[in-house]
Amino acid sequence: MGGTMSTKKRLIIFAVAALLVSMSLLCDVTTAATPTTLTVSAPATVFSGQTFSVTGQLTANGTALPWKIITLQNSTDNVTWTTVTTKQNYADGTYAFMNLNEMVAHTLYYRTTYAGATSNVVSVTVTKVTKIPTTLTVSAPATVSPGQTFSVTGQLTANGTALPWKIITLQNSTDNVTWTTVTTKQNYADGTYAFMNLNEMVAHTLYYRTTYAGATSNVVSVTVDTL
Questions:
Q1: Domains along the chain?
Q2: How far apart are CA 90 and CA 164, in angstroms?
Q3: Residue 195: C-alpha distances to residues 57, 91, 102, 209, 214 (Å)
Q4: Which of 39, 101, 108, 132 lies in disulfide reach of 56, CB 3.0 to 4.6 Å?
Q5: pLDDT exceeds cutoff 60 at 5
Q6: Which of 109, 163, 99, 104 is CA-nearest to residue 135?
Q7: C-alpha R_g of the chain
């Protein structure tokens, strides 16, 4: 009798163990089967040497999947892929591979992967130029009173994108022909700049412009009225 009970107990234990294993496998299959989706985006065109970013988001069943390791890959033919780097995504599932740049004029394809999920493919065409075209804008008040402080402001962009942390030179002229450097200043994160607390004590008209690495802004005039 004792031996029979022992066998029954063993059978029960085996049955419970088998049930637990099957439940564990079911959970693994369910987890593995959870559909994940990767999106990716990048600028369509850049200049050689210009930094750019590849960004996107990882979701599972439409819900952000955070703190996962995303793999960035690129290809020259959209067939053979090479791993560029990996990076952990953020709390909202988004990711950003920043400060990428290419020096050779060609077209590269980018995609991202995670645990078997592969994003769409985006292409980035790199155009070779001698120098990225930069544009400077400038504005100032048309009239001020003698001794009244004013500002000359504007923005520096490259190919339509803000170009930050560059040294901008402010110049002025009394005849719009001969120019004198007034001062220099680093612009801000959004490419804008502001030369503040300028003032003129004499009633006359001054012309202002800004320059950066060969780029010159438009010219604005500031007329100092008499009191």
A1: 36-127 (2.60.40.730), 134-224 (2.60.40.730)
A2: 25
A3: 40, 39, 35, 11, 19
A4: 39
A5: no
A6: 163
A7: 31
